[in-house]
Design a protein that fits this description.
Number of helices: 3
Low-confidence stretches: none
Structural class: mainly alpha
């Protein structure tokens, strides 16, 4: 196992330990926020980052909002 893999394992273990500590110390139930939590939290920032990324790849980007379905 390379050093990078060991560091990743320790980082994940630390994150799990922190979550467990917060749950136990506050006596609250753990709430999974989902894989897209940060995308939803900073939606405008995520949109702008993705637009810039596509433009760096040579695409011209035009964004228009989705129309509401009835």
């Amino acid at each position: 196992m390379r050093r990078g893999e060991k560091r990743a394992v320790i980082a994940v273990a630390r994150t799990i330990l922190q979550a467990a500590w917060h749950v136990l110390s506050k006596g609250e139930e753990y709430k999974e926020r989902g894989g897209n939590y940060f995308d939803r939290l900073g939606g405008e920032q995520t949109k702008n980052q993705l637009i810039r990324r596509l433009e760096r790849l040579g695409y011209e980007v035009e964004i228009k909002p989705k129309q509401a379905t009835v």
